[in-house]
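ok trying again, last paste got cut off:
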Amino acid sequence: MKTLCLLISLLTVMLTLSSTTLEVSLDGAHSYTSIQSAIDASNNGDTVLVHPGRYFENINYSGKNITLCSDYINNPDWSIVESTIIDGNQQSSCVVIISGEQNATLNGFTITNGIGYGNSRYGGGIYIKQQSNASISNCNITGNTAYKSGGIRCINSSNLVISGSCIFDNSSIYQGGGIGINNASITFDPIDLNSIHNNYGDVQDIFIYNSQCTSIILDTLSIDISEPDGFFVSHYHEDGLPNPQISVQNNYFNQIDADLYVSPDGDDNNDGLTPETALQTIAYASRIIQPVSLNPNTVHVLPGTYSSELNNQFFPVALQSNTKLIGLGLSPEEVIIGSELSLYQIIPRNVTNVEISNITMMQSSLNSDFCLGASRSNELYIHDIILKNNYNQEPGIAFSSISNSVIENITVSDVLNSETRISCVKLYECDNITLNGIIVDNIVNVMQEGSSLFVKLEKSDVTVNNMMITNSVINEPGSIFQYSNTLASETCGNLELNNFLAYNNTSLSNSLPLILFSTRHDECTLNNMSIVYNTSPTAITRFGGDFSLRNNIIYNPNGAYEMVVWEPINGDTNPLWSNIDIDYSLVRNGISGVPGADNPNNNVLWGVNNIDANPMFRGDVEGDVPVGDTRWVQLTENSPCVNAGTPDTLGMNLPALDITGNPRVWGNIIDMGAHEYNPTVDIYNETAPSPPSTIQLSHFPNPVTPNGNNGKVAFIEFTLPKKPIGKPTLEIYNIRGQKVRDIKITQSFSQLVRSAGLSSEDKQSGEYYSQVWDCKDNNRKSVASGIYFYKVSCEGSEAIGKMMVVK
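nice, full thing came through this time. structure:
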């Protein structure tokens, strides 16, 4: 062993003695005029010394263990760093170390104008991968952009040691504006300190994922924090490794403990404290606002259009925990976020207690991923969002690993896409999620590669109320709706679906049904669905697992089958068999038209109250509304679905109102389907509907059980006599008369339907609102068990309801 060590030492000395310094200058005074040519001529252990100048190059170490340095190594004057520039010229990364280099050193440069390596655009300034070991010292890394990690990206079990460097004014779409470390290791020099600040991205300065990092000691960070906050510094490790401790001597800016205002005509040099002194950039406002947990500050977005082309907006807009981003228009249509150059638009990640509302998002390009998405976050309230005319892969909302969140009053519409698979509403591995008032309309996707799912709820525990999927076309393979929670190793969860309308959709797929339901876990409940007049060459619906269906209409004369019960293929080692309990429902062709129901391993309990008949919709009977208008599938007086639902609805957590806001259980028995027939409502008189004389309000379930298996939130629904000029208010009070919560209302569900083009002006009894209360107070703390009152006020009128919360 001693002999071996001696040989290694001698070899190291010999290599050192034989090393060469290759010098580079632009004026030809030295042997090389380009950095890459000197690297190509070098050998392991050599030094490439670069004299001042601006070198428009994209440097590749090409697997060589060399030192690349400027004159700073001999004369530590920072002006040398500033004048010795590697300019990526918007072509690629400025420097790549991607071939398993074991000792690559970079010292004394300004690294700028890189856009990332390859088509994926990784590592705008510097890209390190493939188990490479790199040391970066005394560098300015600034003015770089990338898809992932604007300043430096280090991945694939590589190791990075960084000292004495400044990383600032870089940007990326994903995984860190300044530094992104993914499945690698990074060491921040605790003596020769680095500064990392004023970068933009989904995480502003430092992103660390599944990587080794025990401490972050810096001279300057954007703000002074002691542990990762998910916004400026993010740390996540699947094995649960502890967060690195952060020590910062200086912060680049001070945050503002106040609401801020943003305007397309504003200026980021303003203070942002009033509409008259508004800032211009939403992303800038979201980073300088001070998070406050008890009373979150708000970024108010004034009416207008916000885009990178028109007013220098930066996307994506990331959000801090305990903050709000709210449009100030009278409706979402007045605040438009849209940019053909952006890959994402709004991304809250690793945050808690965030609200986003009253915004329209549009014009995303084909190269974009999604418009609004969140991951690894908790207690989100996202509502009153319109997404239309987007042409990206996910032109709506996408959430992964979020919990205890409410998403309501969302419209995704008017998408024509033949070049990429798409999804409009996506949940993945989410827990305790409420979706309320979701509309997906006029989505046309004729791509024949990949699988498109317009609504995809996967591995999630979710309650859905008031969802419409209408007037859409999907190609092979694809479905308009899927709930899937089938991995045996996953935690339990289920789907509760009420007031669901799927109408006038067309599937061109010969392999997938139009709508898919599958679970291995808790029984899912599907109530008051109208899946009607859709077209599919295969099945309309397919079920696998345990489901209870009540008060549904499944009637699709242009579908091959109304229902199919999944039959596992031969040899499946973990087959999924079903228990289907269906009653008080209309299903075309009855049980005889349900393949898989007769398989002895499936248990289909077909209730005696099911019927097989023409539902006699308004469009069929009266013919007075166009196809595609949701009024086409309203029930008529002689429909067999009227008063044919479950006689006893107690314990079913059913909404008190139908999908258009008319009272349920007219005539003491609930109707089948998403619409309730009410003979006192003149739905056929377009000019003079019959509104209620006062505010009508209700809630469900009762009691509300925030910690239970069902009814974890309260749905508060109310109908106004007419469309109001101002906005109604909704307030929650405890039994002592103390107000505990204000719930902001920006638009009604009626307005949501109208704005999606699914009907024209008031066509039901008054103006219908559906809102969710998550049983938290204005400080986002859970309320205690007890009696609570909810009060709706509008234009001098008010109504009060009472509910019980049981924890």
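cool. Confidence is low (pLDDT under 50) at residues 1-17, 682-691. The helical segments are 2-18, 35-41, 78-83, 282-288, 308-311, 618-621, 749-755.
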